[in-house]
């Protein structure tokens, strides 16, 4: 991206010792990007995305030694950051804004550190929910993000508290495609993050597993769920329809549904960015928030609801526009207000969104 490179050069000479990612400032012009559904990318574009993700996995970690023992590469830095803040960025009033910037930082790393020319793709859940295995995202081809896991009869089925979903045909290490047998470096964590585990960043290698589950995807990531989310009258409702779940029951929204539909690593609320699917899944969540905001900017653009701890445990203040969000070693702290409009401040992107249900293959190129 030549325009971006120019901008980077100007900024880095202006700021001798910049905080991480000061290159974000003032670079909105000329970098406007359009995020598209995975299947709307041409095959070379999909390969470029996969290549850039692998490039981050091949670069050294930039987190200071000892701060995150499981962070062995640059991609791990992103996982470490999510793990580190999991207990304060989910099921609360900053979930949407924190993740919006987190995706943006990842997109910028792909572009600036790995020469990726595209923008972050997203996963339009309903298009593929009934047949994940043959979707362009999970068909196991070189232009997918890899396929299902090997069948592992003793791997654990997806559970929400004591409620257990019927399992799929995988459960083992990803068997085919670009991320087959990928080794992950952080330990797996189960359960809801309302405590701050001091050992959460420790090194505990295992393979990336999946257990693609069409039943979960069809139920929780359906077009009617998406339509319901978009029809939310207020911020409290859209947050609730996206993410609420009731432990011990099958009640949950498409945010959780997408995590559960892919497998054990995507279901890990701490380390879920370990599965590259995470970025596309959260792209869809950000798309829905963006579209919902655009329907009534006067009332919705800067609307917040909820506190700043997960499930408000321990009880905390309400999220406000000046509340500072932390991104560890990925970026400096910034106020929530920075992240409320995808066309303002440090952002300049939009989503290409095709309404309604497509057919698998319809958008293949
Ligand atoms: C972007 O361009 C517009 C119009 O040329 C200008 O008004 C605005 O200040 C520019 N923004 C930045 C961040 O350079
Ligand atoms: C199958 O899953 C069990 C339980 O998680 C695990 O202990 C075992 O290592 C897995 N086997 C393979 C081959 O992945
Ligand atoms: C799961 O079941 C156990 C034993 O019946 C119970 O103690 C626990 O509270 C239940 N957990 C949830 C989340 O419902
Ligand atoms: C993944 O690892 C298993 C067990 O070592 C091996 O049998 C299999 O061939 C590997 N698959 C790929 C695609 O590398
Ligand atoms: C926090 O938000 C809730 C719900 O919007 C509201 O009822 C409450 O008064 C707020 N608390 C403070 C301290 O502003
Ligand atoms: C984790 O969060 C704490 C508290 O904000 C911070 O001091 C630390 O640097 C963070 N570590 C990482 C790896 O992000
Ligand atoms: Cu998250």
Structural commentary:
- Residues 90-107, 275-286 form the Tyrosinase copper-binding domain.
- Keywords: Metal-binding, Oxidoreductase.
- It holds the Pfam family Tyrosinase.
- InterPro entries: Di-copper_centre_dom_sf, Tyrosinase/Hemocyanin, Tyrosinase_Cu-bd.
- GO terms for molecular function: metal ion binding; oxidoreductase activity.
- The protein is mainly α and 365 residues long.
- The protein has one domain: Orthogonal Bundle (di-copper center containing domain from catechol oxidase), CATH 1.10.1280.10.
- Helices cover 35% and strands 8% of the residues.
- The chain is built from twelve helices and ten strands.
- It has helices spanning 2-14, 43-58, 74-89, 95-114, 125-128, 214-220, 223-230, 235-243, 254-262, 264-267, 277-294, 297-300, and strands spanning 33-35, 149-151, 159-160, 163-164, 171-174, 183-186, 203-207, 324-325, 334-335, 349-351.
- Strands 1-10 form a two-stranded parallel sheet.
- A hairpin with a 2-residue loop joins strand 3 and strand 4 (163-164).
- Helix 2 (43-58) packs across helix 4 and helix 9 (254-262) runs antiparallel to helix 11.
- One 2-acetamido-2-deoxy-beta-D-glucopyranose binds at residues 26, 28-29.
The number of distinct structural domains comes to: 1
The assembly state of the depicted protein chains is single chain
Shape: globular
How is the main sheet built? 2 strands, parallel
The proportion of residues forming helix, as a percent range, comes to 25-40%
Please, what is the average pLDDT? 88
Low-pLDDT regions: 1-23, 25-30, 360-365
What would CATH call the class? Mainly Alpha
């Amino acid at each position: 991206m030549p325009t971006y490179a120019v901008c980077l050069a100007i900024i880095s000479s202006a700021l001798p010792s910049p905080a991480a990612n000061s290159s974000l400032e003032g670079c909105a012009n000329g970098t406007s990007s359009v995020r598209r559904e995975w299947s709307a990318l041409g095959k070379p574009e999909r390969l470029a995305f996969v290549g850039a993700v692998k490039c981050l996995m091949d670069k050294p970690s930039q987190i200071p030694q000892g701060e995150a023992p499981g962070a062995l590469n640059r991609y791990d830095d992103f996982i470490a950051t999510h793990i580190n803040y999991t207990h304060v960025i989910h099921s609360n009033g900053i979930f949407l804004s924190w993740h919006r910037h987190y995706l943006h930082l990842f997109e910028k790393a792909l572009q600036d550190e790995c020469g990726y020319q595209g923008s972050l793709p997203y996963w339009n859940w309903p298009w593929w929910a009934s047949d994940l295995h043959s979707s362009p995202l999970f068909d196991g081809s070189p232009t997918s993000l890899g396929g299902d896991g090997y069948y592992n009869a003793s791997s654990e089925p997806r559970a929400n508290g004591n409620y257990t979903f019927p399992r799929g045909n995988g459960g083992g290490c990803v068997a085919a495609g670009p991320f087959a047998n990928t080794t992950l470096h952080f330990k797996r964590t189960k359960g809801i993050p309302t405590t701050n585990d001091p050992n959460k960043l420790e090194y505990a290698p295992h393979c990336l597993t999946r257990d693609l589950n069409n039943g979960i995807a069809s139920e929780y990531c359906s077009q009617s769920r998406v339509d319901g989310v978009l029809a939310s009258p207020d911020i409290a409702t859209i947050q609730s329809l996206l993410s609420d779940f009731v432990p011990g029951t099958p009640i949950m929204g498409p945010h959780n549904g997408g995590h559960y539909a892919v497998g054990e690593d995507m279901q890990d609320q701490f380390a879920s960015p370990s599965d590259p699917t995470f970025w596309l899944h959260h792209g869809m969540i950000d798309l829905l928030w963006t579209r919902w905001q655009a329907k009534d900017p006067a009332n919705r653009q800067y609307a917040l609801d909820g506190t700043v701890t997960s499930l408000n445990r321990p009880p905390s203040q309400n999220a406000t526009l000046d509340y500072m969000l932390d991104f560890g070693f990925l970026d400096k702290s910034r106020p929530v207000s920075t992240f409320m409009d995808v066309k303002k401040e440090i952002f300049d992107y939009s989503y290409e969104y095709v309404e309604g249900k497509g057919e698998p293959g319809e958008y293949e190129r």
